[in-house]
Amino acid sequence: MRIVVQRVTSASVTVSGEVIGRIDTGFLLLFGVGHEDTEEDCRRLADKITALRIFSDENDKINLDLNAVGGSLLVVPQFTLYADCRKGNRPNFIQAARPDKANGLYEYFVEYCRSKGFHVETGEFGADMKVELLNDGPFTVILE
């Protein structure tokens, strides 16, 4: 599983001209699933992400987590995180999980984050999405 975590002051995802997910302060998560990933991986990474202390405190030190700032999550599925560009100029996606498995784990991850009490907005699996964000910092972390 590969997740790109971007600290944002706002983010949204649009499908066919309609905004389907929008958050203010929080994390935009680009979410990719590989063949070997499991529900346990989802729980482990969700626990890690929601506990990341990468928001600034009153002394401008990165010391606060998502809960401390009342932040939300916008989770966008992105199989292209598994692009392999080592050979030639056209990426292959052999390491990305099949759509049925990837979508199942994506939905599990979203529901797990909601069960932890976080407000979660989503993209649409398999759709052509337009993602907008105002990256805060910028601050971006990649987790596997």
Poorly predicted spans = none
The top-level CATH class is Alpha Beta
Estimate what percentage of residues fall within beta strands: 35-45%
Helix percentage:
10-25%
Rg, Cα atoms, Å: 15 Å
| CATH superfamily annotation | D-tyrosyl-tRNA(Tyr) deacylase
What is the terminal-to-terminal distance?
5 Å
Secondary-structure-derived class = alpha/beta
The total count of helices amounts to 2
Main sheet makeup: 6 strands, mixed
Order of helices and strands: EEEHEEEHEE
CATH topology-level name: D-tyrosyl-trna(Tyr) Deacylase, Chain: A
Q: Mean of the pLDDT scores?
A: 96
The appropriate CATH architecture is 3-Layer(bba) Sandwich
Domain unit count: 1
What's the total count of β strands? 8
Quick one: overall form? globular
Q: Could you walk me through the main structural features you see in this protein, from its secondary elements to its overall organization?
A:
The chain has helices at 39-51, 99-115, and strands at 2-15, 18-23, 26-32, 55-56, 62-64, 72-77, 120-122, 129-143. With 144 residues, the protein is an alpha/beta fold. The chain has one domain: D-tyrosyl-trna(Tyr) Deacylase, Chain: A (3-Layer(bba) Sandwich). The strands form 2 sheets. Strands 1, 2, 3, 6, 7 and 8 form a 6-stranded mixed beta sheet that branches. Strands 4-5 form a two-stranded antiparallel ribbon. Helix 1 (39-51) packs across helix 2 (99-115). The radius of gyration is 15 Å and the shape is globular. It starts with a strand and ends with a strand.
